[in-house]
């Protein structure tokens, strides 16, 4: 039902989904069943199949915006490092953790090229 | 009862809400009065064209009489209590929701079943022993069916009180007991106009979202009555059985209070605090959307849900949003709200 609200922080620890040795080959894209809205830098996502909705903080929102079906995880990581004052290792950890969570929730899909 | 007798007892009633015509066919007189009260401002003697939406409500004596068939592709979407079905959170009915080939079926166990077909504009309600049901339950089930059909036609409902002043709308949203109705009465006393106590409609008007009146009786607790003793002159004599609230028609107390469709400029999310004075806390658009979603969105048809989500996003973007920490100065609320509403875009 629609009453569930999950906030996805950018620093969660989750089970590995993506292969971290192939970050320059993994492409991310949004799932067709997800509707998102950017609100003052943050993002609210609705899974149209389950009615569950989620919020992304500013970092998560930038990651979400780059899941276009064109960017690799390495591309997104480079963008984060340019955009935020963050250590590259920390940015990568946060990025991988969020991607894993988004994949597990069915909010994004990935393919290896 | 023979078929001929059933047909004789079936009566159709006509309503028109914002360009959407509705025909309601009730098999039992018991199913008529609650709907008439809910839609009393929208009743029509005739329609210029055939009704866009038709709701048939049937009275049965046993669950086995409900002619419910499901295909092999039917799947259960959810189950729980009425708190998660629709926006009438005080109605805690057990339910399960089943999707079956374009229909969704809300099964309320021993109370009845709703079968909705939004694309066909038709809903069937089967109520078991309606003579044993509280009128609020009948009204709730009809409202649930009606609002689902409305969603397919671009009319959405939201769990909120709604008022208007000088063409600017204010929505007061939140679960029961948070102070929506008390806030509304405080504003009505100072000249605000009434749109709805619990479930106004919202519609995408292009440039912005509009809120549309859905006036019903207001329901108040004894606590609210204590703040506004003038209510005693117009209240129903006693609470409905099983309810701690008493009701009144707003126009009986505020004769010129009927508001017009308008652009909402402000949304309040009240909660009662133990303090002398109320105060407002500005919240972000994202926070507002998070608070609005559970008061409005009901996901069954993904495409309809997508459109509804978009209109809620648009609403959150166009309004100023505040948490209202509602203190004991309830009658003074207009002093807090009106200057901000006048400044709102």
Outline of the structure:
The complex is a heterodimer of chains A (113) and B (345). Chain A has helices spanning 58-65, 73-83, 88-104; strands spanning 5-8, 26-30, 34-39, 42-47, 53-56, 68-72, 108-112.
Describe the structure.
The complex is a heterodimer of chains A (113) and B (345). With 113 residues, chain A is of the alpha+beta class. Chain A is built from three helices and seven strands. Chain A has a single domain, classed as Outer Surface Protein A, domain 3 (Alpha-Beta Complex). In chain A, strand 3 and strand 4 (42-47) form a beta hairpin. Chain B is of the alpha+beta class and 345 residues long. The chains are: A alpha+beta (113), B alpha+beta (345). The interface between A and B is medium-sized, with 19 and 23 residues.
Chain-wise SSE layout:
The complex is a heterodimer of chains A (113) and B (345).
Chain A (H helix, E strand, L loop, with lengths): L4 E4 L17 E5 L3 E6 L2 E6 L5 E4 L1 H8 L2 E5 H11 L4 H17 L3 E5 L1
Parallel strand pairs in A: 1-5
Antiparallel strand pairs in A: 2-6, 2-7, 3-4, 4-5
Helix pairs in contact in A: 2-3
Chain B lengths: L2 H7 L1 E7 L2 E7 L6 H6 L4 E2 L8 E8 L14 E7 L12 E7 L2 E5 L4 E6 L4 E7 L6 H17 L4 E2 L2 E6 L2 E6 L6 H10 L3 E4 L4 E4 L4 E4 L5 E3 L1 H6 L18 E3 L1 H4 L9 E10 L6 E4 L2 H12 L5 H17 L1 E7 L6 H11 L2
Parallel strand pairs in B: 2-4, 4-9, 12-18, 18-20
Antiparallel strand pairs in B: 1-2, 1-3, 5-6, 6-7, 7-8, 8-9, 10-14, 11-12, 11-13, 14-15, 16-17, 19-20
Helix pairs in contact in B: 7-8
């Amino acid at each position: 039902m629609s009453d569930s609200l999950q906030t996805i922080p950018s620093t969660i620890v989750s089970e590995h989904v993506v292969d971290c040795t192939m970050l320059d080959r993994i492409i991310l894209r949004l799932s067709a069943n997800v509707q998102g809205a950017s609100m003052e830098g943050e993002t609210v996502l609705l899974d149209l199949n389950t009615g569950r909705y989620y919020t992304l903080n500013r970092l998560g929102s930038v990651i979400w915006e780059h899941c276009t079906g064109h960017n690799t995880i390495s591309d997104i990581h480079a963008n984060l490092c340019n955009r935020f004052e963050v250590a590259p290792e920390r940015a990568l950890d946060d990025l991988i953790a969020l991607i894993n969570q988004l994949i597990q929730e069915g909010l994004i899909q990935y393919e290896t090229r | 009862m023979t078929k001929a007798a059933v047909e004789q007892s079936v009566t159709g009633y006509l309503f028109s809400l914002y360009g959407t015509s509705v025909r309601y066919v009730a098999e039992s007189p018991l199913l008529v009065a609650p709907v008439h009260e809910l839609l009393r401002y929208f009743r029509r003697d005739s329609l210029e064209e055939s009704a866009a939406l038709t709701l048939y409500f049937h009275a049965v004596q046993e669950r086995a009489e409900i002619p419910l068939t499901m295909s092999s592709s039917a799947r259960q979407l959810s189950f729980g209590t009425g708190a998660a079905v629709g926006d009438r959170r005080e109605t805690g009915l057990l339910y399960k929701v089943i999707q079956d080939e374009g229909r969704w079926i809300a099964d309320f166990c021993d109370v009845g079943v709703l079968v909705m077909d939004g694309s066909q504009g038709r809903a069937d309600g089967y109520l078991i022993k309606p003579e044993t049901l509280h009128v609020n339950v009948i009204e709730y089930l009809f409202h649930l069916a009606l609002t689902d059909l409305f969603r397919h036609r671009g009319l959405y409902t939201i769990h909120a009180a709604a008022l208007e002043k000088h063409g600017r709308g204010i929505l007061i949203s939140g679960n029961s007991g948070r102070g929506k109705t008390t806030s509304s009465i405080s504003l009505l006393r100072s000249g605000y106009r009434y749109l709805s106590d619990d479930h106004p409609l919202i519609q995408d008007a292009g440039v912005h979202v509009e809120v549309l009146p859905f006036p019903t009786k207001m329901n108040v607790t004894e606590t609210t009555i204590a703040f506004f003793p003038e209510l005693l002159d117009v209240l129903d004599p006693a609470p409905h059985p099983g309810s701690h609230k008493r009701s009144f028609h707003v126009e009986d107390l505020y004769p010129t209070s009927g508001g017009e469709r308008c652009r909402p400029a402000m949304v309040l999310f009240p909660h009662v605090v133990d303090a002398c004075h109320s105060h407002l806390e500005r919240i972000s658009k994202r926070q507002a959307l998070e608070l609005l979603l559970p008061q409005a969105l009901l996901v069954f048809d993904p495409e309809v849900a997508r459109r509804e989500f978009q209109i809620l996003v648009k609403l959150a973007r166009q309004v100023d949003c505040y948490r209202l920490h509602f203190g004991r100065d309830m009658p003074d609320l207009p002093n807090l709200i009106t200057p901000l509403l006048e400044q709102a875009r």
